[in-house]
Design a protein that fits this description.
Chain B: Residues 1-22 form the signal peptide. Chain B: InterPro entries: ModA, ModA/WtpA. The complex is a heterodimer. Chain A is an alpha/beta fold. Chain A is built from 15 helices and eleven strands. Chain A has helices spanning 2-15, 50-59, 73-76, 101-106, 120-133, 147-158, 161-182, 213-217, 223-228, 238-244, 254-260, 270-273, 295-307, 316-328, 334-341; strands at residues 26-29, 35-38, 45-47, 111-116, 137-141, 192-196, 203-205, 221-222, 233-235, 248-251, 277-279. In chain A, strand 1 (26-29) and strand 2 form a beta hairpin. Chain B contains eleven helices and nine strands. The longest helix of chain B is centred in the N-terminal third of the chain and has 18 residues, at 4-21. The chains are: A alpha/beta, B alpha/beta.
Chain lengths: 343, 268
């Protein structure tokens, strides 16, 4: 009765523009310092690239219009059923940008979100998308240490402040714990690793590259970076790897890891002899390298535990469970957890 | 005069036959059933024309009252044991007609589902509230739920008991203002991210504080009380009321207030 009586007044208030605060557009300053006018109610969000899609999924899956490419059944297995089957709508940023602005407009998003580098290239891309579509476009920082604030910014834009704070707090706590414990290890005693990319393992990423941010974060010494310098991706020869003789090999390629142990050439490398090959878990999103999004936060914790077992004695399984339930809304069975951790 | 005579006669016959047919029934029911049983009795009165006198109180007290001779047609208890006691002395069969299971009342940002609930309760980032064991059966049920979790994840029971914040039911628990439920209050104060309480309490709290979410407990963890109904005499109206309570109409009302189907596992 009370509701029925107050309804006309509510409608009148809305008509007069005395609506609740959420109904009003407001400017938000994004990670690049751009002022973006975000509608009061955001229900449909277009993710410009894979990193943005993952963050959006973890914060507000009901707003995500799709992935940049549809997930494979194996990837979807590690998401709750409810969120399987989201379409792939192409990407606006990065390699092989496959969505054009008409495709964006057709999906009628309230907001476009890009997450990653906030350098000039991406600022101008965001400005162009916004200018040509008229849809507000937020650019958020995607580095590990930028993720907490990016969550908070996006939480404000979507009206999901409390969940954003929950996830941002988790990330901060995890990264802080890892840094504090590793700070006690003198640089000379930190593990020397080689990051093997590609099926033959002879592509790598140099220190400072976004691809090895998780490894850099845990203070591991990149043998290719030490020899070649800082930068992006590099192709190397097996002779170089043999000469660098890393103690650890990190890879996101289970196929490479499977064959390298039986390869006589690789067997001269210390990491292979010692069976110190760390294969990053893959699902639903790989724990290192790509896409460079929040999926790497659990990767950082995993690398810390594997590279510094004495400093991180806690069993990893409950930590992984916790991350998957908090961020992905997915409870792992014991069997799934084992399969995930031993790719 | 000629016209009024048949009318008066008809009225007289109606009253007489009504008196012969209408019955006065006494239903004694657990305090937690007050809201649904009041609705159910009112519906039954309208449909049948019988009068239902309601008496609510703690189930144990009602059992004493009935056994000491208070006239009773039906007894609806918050457990099975009390009505079974009465049936042992007076005859009749107790039927399980509803259950009051534990539910999880959660802050919206937790985004819990029945599947993820246990992992989230275990999460170091999530504060878990319960009622106080021993002081309040709902607290005892929460501890039973923790024990059931042990079968799903080794070590879970100890971790849950260690982290649980006993926020209600104890002697020093906060007292809500008269128009508030304590569950909505502690959640609005953000004293917990997940609070385990009876589904009926969770329903009231979520009405009071929109935004709070109710997450059903998965079957593998479900605990709660089974409510038993005993019809104490063979008169047709009493049997009819019993059928009405346990039937689809009664069930619908009970569900509205958060009661579950009767056959759930792990009764205490």
């Amino acid at each position: 009765m009370r509701l029925a009586a107050s309804l006309p007044f509510l409608l009148l208030a809305l008509w007069l523009g005395i609506g609740p605060a959420w109904a009003e557009s407001r400017p938000i300053e994004d990670s690049a310092g751009r002022a973006v006018v975000v509608p009061g109610r955001v229900e449909r969000v277009f993710a410009a690239g894979p990193p943005a899609a993952i963050v959006l999924y973890t914060l507000a899956p009901d707003t995500l219009l799709g992935w940049t490419r549809a997930l494979s059944p194996q990837e979807e297995l590690y998401l709750p059923e409810r969120w399987r089957g989201l379409p792939g709508h192409g990407r606006l940023t990065g390699r092989g940008n496959s969505a054009n602005l008409e495709a964006v407009l057709a999906l009628k998003p309230d907001l476009v979100v890009d997450l990653g580098s906030v350098g000039p290239t991406y600022v101008s891309l965001a400005d162009r998308v916004q200018g040509q579509t008229g849809i507000p476009t937020l650019l958020l920082g995607g580095r590990l240490d930028e993720l907490p604030d990016s969550y908070r910014l996006l939480g404000t834009a979507l009206g999901k402040e409390a969940r954003a704070e929950l996830l941002a707090g988790y990330i901060e706590e995890t990264l802080d714990l890892v840094q504090r414990r590793i700070a006690t290890v003198p640089p000379a005693e930190r593990p020397r690793f080689y990051y093997a990319r590609g099926p033959r393992g002879l592509d790598t990423a140099l220190t400072g590259s976004i691809n090895v941010e998780a490894m850099d974060f845990v203070g591991a010494r990149n043998v290719a970076g030490d020899a070649i310098g800082k930068g992006g991706l590099a192709a190397v020869s097996l002779e170089q790897v043999i000469a660098w003789n890393p103690a650890i090999i990190v890879t996101a390629e289970p196929g490479f890891a499977a064959q390298v142990r039986d390869n006589p050439n690789w067997r001269t490398v210390r990491a292979v002899r010692d069976d110190a090959i760390l294969v990053a878990p893959q699902y639903p999103f790989p724990w290192v390298d790509f896409p460079p999004s929040v999926n790497r936060v659990i990767g950082v914790r995993w690398l810390a535990a594997r590279l510094y077992p004495a400093l991180f004695p806690e069993p990893l399984e409950p930590i992984v469970r916790d991350f998957y339930s908090l961020f992905y809304g997915r409870t792992l069975t014991d069997a799934e957890l084992t399969r995930l951790l031993t790719p | 005069m000629k016209r009024t005579l048949p009318a008066a006669l008809f009225a007289l016959i109606s009253v007489l036959s009504g008196a012969a047919m209408a019955d006065d029934l006494t239903l004694r029911a657990a305090g937690s059933l007050k809201a649904p049983m009041s609705d159910i009795a009112a519906q039954f009165e309208t449909l049948s024309g019988h009068q239902v006198t309601l008496d609510f109180g703690p189930s144990g007290l009602l059992r004493e009252r009935i056994l000491s001779g208070a006239p009773t047609d039906l007894f609806a208890s918050a457990n099975m044991a009390h009505p079974e006691d009465v049936a042992g002395q007076r005859g009749g069969t107790v039927i399980a007609f509803a259950s009051n299971m534990l539910c999880a009342l959660t802050q919206p940002e937790i985004a819990a589902t029945p599947d993820t609930l246990l992992d989230l309760m275990l999460s170091p980032r999530v504060r878990l509230g319960t009622s106080t064991p021993q002081a309040d059966p709902a607290g005892d049920y929460a501890w039973m739920l923790f024990d059931r979790a042990e079968a799903l994840q080794a070590g879970a029971a100890a971790r849950l008991k260690a982290k649980a914040l006993t926020l209600t039911g104890g002697a020093d628990a906060p007292k809500p203002p008269a128009d508030r439920t304590v569950y909505a209050m502690v959640m609005e104060q953000r004293a917990a991210d997940i609070f385990l309480t009876y589904c009926t309490n969770a329903v009231l709290a979520a009405q009071e504080a929109p935004g709070l979410k109710i997450v059903p407990i998965p079957d593998s963890l479900a605990v709660g009380a089974t409510y038993g109904l005993l019809v104490l005499n063979d008169r047709k109206p009493a049997v009819e009321l019993g059928r009405y309570i346990a039937g689809p109409d009664g069930r619908a009302v009970l569900e509205k207030y958060g009661f579950g189907a009767p056959s759930k596992p792990a009764e205490r």
